Backbone:
């Protein structure tokens, strides 16, 4: 069970067996609650649209959390690295549900419309491209893959920065006008990507100087 | 909302009306906020009285109408219209109102009048959506119709729905309803109707001309750049597995009445 321990000035959570399963479980609650509401006609006048957007929003939130782990460690010193995979996988599961809702509940599996959408509409092409790029990352999110891929694993997982930019633009385009919500989320995604680029560049130059 | 004296008019759609709660709680009225629930949530401070509607421009008898005089002078009737939003959802709404043509005829349009320009109310103190800086719509909301579209018997000025005066979130006290066009043409809370010679600017077109045309006729063959217009989600059909979707019809199913207005026009370019 989770335990809090005082380490100097700080309260720290002691890692415990099953903590990642617990985070996954809690992380999936927003989807479960909204699905229950939707299935019982409690999601308002346009339930499919509300559910679809809700899942997309949570995918973005977990993507942000995953991207925030390293800056938090560098800047504040708090290390959430052992949860990063769970955040990433949660973003992936939300993306899957978001796409599935769009295909099955929204477009009712109409292949004609779906094909048109992912070949003609930049808004959906961007979203779909981000989803495709997420797939290899999710598939290799396990210890075995990390061992097998070696240094390639890290290179592969840098896709997440491309994904973040694609998602930021897709998210901005999901609204008819620019607004606080769309600008804040997209801005946060882009900021985290920029920070990472700056951080890598700085590390590179300091290493060369040493 | 007060009860309204109304009588059944022509153009009964023969479809099941969308439940009243959905018609009054699922609204696009950005003056009150961007969420569908914002208009019903944040419109309590809105005062639809006193209110005047100015009819002027290229007419021989301009007039500033008091809203109550206007409602007393016009034959108010009920019309069950399909309503198709550009966002690919639809409702069926029992409006109460009178043909715009009746009002325009009283004003006697001059020979050089070609278009009708509509203007909505500007009251940032009562409409929170007009106070936020971070949106790209310009206030007041403006819309327009070609004169023949405005004079068409289907074109309605609605002052009520479901037999009651319009709630604030649906465009109190008077709004436009053009059932063969996308919903955003239906400008709400109108304060001015002006007859003009040139095509007037319209709010959504000004915001993004590639996505929102002046005509905005419902057309399943001309897709929105971001989504298909071939079909529509039926509002108020229940949960996830309720009524679902239906095919979108050309001119929202009013082609028999209005197709003639666009005889030789290319509706792909004039969208």
Residues:
């Amino acid at each position: 069970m989770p335990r809090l321990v005082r380490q100097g000035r700080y309260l720290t959570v002691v890692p415990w067996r099953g903590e990642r399963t617990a985070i996954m479980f809690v992380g999936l609650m927003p989807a479960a609650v909204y699905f229950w509401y939707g299935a019982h006609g409690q999601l308002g006048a346009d339930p499919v649209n509300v559910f679809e957007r809700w899942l997309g929003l949570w995918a973005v939130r977990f993507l942000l959390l995953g991207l925030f782990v390293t800056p938090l460690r560098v800047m504040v010193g708090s290390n959430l690295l052992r949860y990063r995979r769970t955040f990433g996988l949660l973003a992936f599961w939300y993306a899957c549900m978001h796409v599935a809702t769009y295909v099955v509940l929204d477009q009712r599996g109409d292949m004609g419309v779906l094909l048109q959408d992912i070949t003609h509409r930049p808004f959906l092409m961007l979203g779909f491209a981000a989803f495709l790029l997420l797939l290899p990352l999710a598939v290799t999110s396990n210890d075995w893959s990390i061992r097998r891929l070696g240094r390639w694993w890290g290179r592969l997982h840098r896709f997440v920065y491309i994904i973040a930019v694609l998602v930021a633009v897709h998210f901005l385009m999901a609204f008819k006008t620019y607004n606080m919500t769309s600008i804040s989320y997209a801005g946060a995604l882009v900021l985290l990507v920029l920070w990472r680029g700056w951080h890598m560049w700085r590390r590179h130059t300091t290493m060369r100087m040493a | 909302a007060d009860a309204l004296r109304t009588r059944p008019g022509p153009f009964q759609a023969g479809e099941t009306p969308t439940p009243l709660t959905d018609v009054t709680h699922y609204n696009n009225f950005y003056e009150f906020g961007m969420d569908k629930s914002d208009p019903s949530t944040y419109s309590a401070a809105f005062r639809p009285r006193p209110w005047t509607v100015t009819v002027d421009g290229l007419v021989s008898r301009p007039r500033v109408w008091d809203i109550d005089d206007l409602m007393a002078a016009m034959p108010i009737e009920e019309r069950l219209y399909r309503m198709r939003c550009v966002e690919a959802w639809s409702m069926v709404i029992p409006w109460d109102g009178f043909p715009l043509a009746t009002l325009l005829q009283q004003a006697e349009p001059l020979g050089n009048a070609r278009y009708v320009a509509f203007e909505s109310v500007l009251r940032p103190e009562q409409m929170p959506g007009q106070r936020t800086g971070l949106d790209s719509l310009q206030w007041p909301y403006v819309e327009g119709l070609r004169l023949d579209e405005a004079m068409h018997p289907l074109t309605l000025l609605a002052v009520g729905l479901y037999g009651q005066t319009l709630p604030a979130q649906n465009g109190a006290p008077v709004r436009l309803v053009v059932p063969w066009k996308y919903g955003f043409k239906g400008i709400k809370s109108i304060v001015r109707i002006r007859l003009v010679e040139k095509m007037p600017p319209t709010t959504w077109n000004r915001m993004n001309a590639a996505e929102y045309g002046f005509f905005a006729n419902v057309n399943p063959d001309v897709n929105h750049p971001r989504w298909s217009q071939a079909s529509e989600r039926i509002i108020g059909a229940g949960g996830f597995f309720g009524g679902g979707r239906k095919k979108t019809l050309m001119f929202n199913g009013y082609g028999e009445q209005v197709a003639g207005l666009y005889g030789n026009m290319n509706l792909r370019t004039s969208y």
